[in-house]
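Cross-check.
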Amino acid sequence: MNMKRRLALKFILQLVIAGLASLLIIWFSANWINQQFADISISRDFASIGLDRLVESSKLTKDGIVFDQKLLDQVKQNKGWLQSLDENGRVEQSFNTPSDVPKQYIPGEFAGYITKRIDFPYDVYFWVREKNGKLFTLIYGVRDELTPLLNQVSKEAKFTSNKKLELPIFIQEKTKALGGYIQLLDEKGRELVSYNKPTSIAEQYNLRDLAIRTIDQEQAFQLASFYNSETKLTWLVALPRSSSGSNGEGAMVSEETKVLFIGVGTIFIAIIALFVLLSLWNAHRFGGPLLHMLVWLDSLGKSIYEEPSDRKGIVRSRTRSGRWRSRYRVFMDVMNSIQKLSETLQQNDELRKQNNRLREEWISGITHDLKTPLSSIKGYAHMLSEESYEWNVEEVRKFSTIMLEKSGHMDMLINDLAMTYRLSAGVDAPEGDKIELNEWLRAMLDQVAVNPSFDKSRILFRPAEKRIVVELYTPWLERVIMNIAANALIHNPPETILTVTLYGPSEQSSMTITLSDNGRGMDELSASKLFDRYYRGTNTSSMIEGSGLGMAISKSLVEAMGGNITVKTSIGNGTTIQLSWPLLAYEAEKE
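Predicted model, tokenized:
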């Protein structure tokens, strides 16, 4: 799996997890909002909603009825009380019941309490329901603050001639303490004066509005009114339904709206926090490896090839066992590429340093090789120019011959240098001559054997079975054969045999010339550097003449002519150098 696919899968998985987490946040918040709305409804109208919920949540045990403690707390918060009656009106259980509430009810008396026919300081609600085969009669009561306050207002409050409201101090204090307000309306429902009224309350009522506000249990305020038939004025007293005692400007925002704002705000903040955490996690998960790779690349620019490590010397991308750490695993393709790049740069740097060292050694050696014949030429020239000596013709001829040999050696060295740099610049091979390779190689090897240092019997030639006509630049090919043959015969014992074999198209997949000797062979290091420009396999102090560039030049010449050169050798098993050209580089003569 490539890095692109791994990253795509990881980001898709993150989005799925983030989406599911967001849905969970919304689900929990919605449930919380619904629960708060239900609690507000129970708080405002426990008589119709809370009693039903109380019966539904109750459990029947051997000790009696057990109610939900949360609903009982709501009863207490509303400053209400609760009783459970048997069929005879006796109280079986009670909760938060004041001392002035009866412990047993007579049917007519109970009906009078409910209908307000009997003076009773509480609003009484009852609920009858069957559960588990038993009939429940629950009574819920809450102190009636509204009716006494309305009676006091209707009797004690005054509307003066200068259109001002006069309220006794105890009415003002009680109204404020209960969080209520007072309005006086004219016969058309318009407000004349008010006390402690929130700004959100209307200043004019029609018949329908006043009726709805009086009986609607969903209203924030519970209303009661007294109509004076003589003055045709209406006293309107309102107290908050909730026991929280919200008053004044607080009534401008309903509790439901507050809950909704809190719920939606919580969803928004939680989702923002979720994505911030996801971003931080991504920064740690993906930013860390990216920064690590940038630091590594920067180190490569400073020739530091080791992967950066922590203070303990442990590589950050791997565990102690060498396995990829989880957050680096997605980038392992890039990390492997950087590792290969680091290894390649390190190898190239070492090779460059080695080439510089070899070049210095080679320059030192080639300088020595140039000075040696130059010293001889200079010495013989001084001898010939010396006036105190008279040299005969034979001596002059001897000195001249030596000077020619030394100058020829210098010319060969200089030509090798020139050829090396020409080939490194990418010189193309000149147009070749059409030759028959069997005959040409035989003549070339005879020319090699002319050298007095070589014995002709040390060179064996095995021609191809058929005539082979090729188009190659013969001066370059001659230089290659001469260099390889000379190396094989010079750098091996006198008894070494060089075998030159030519293979045609029916014998090999390409036209091939192999030069094999049974000499001492080479080690791996010498074989790998045989064709390097600055590598010299022999000691510069030896008597063997040469520039150290012969094999490098041979390789470049073969490749410039479209061929390939390889070496196969080992210590004690001789050396085989193979020159090959593809089939398109030659043509076999048809019979």
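Confidence is low (pLDDT under 50) at residues 243-251, 538-545. The radius of gyration is 57 Å. Passed to J.P. for a second look.
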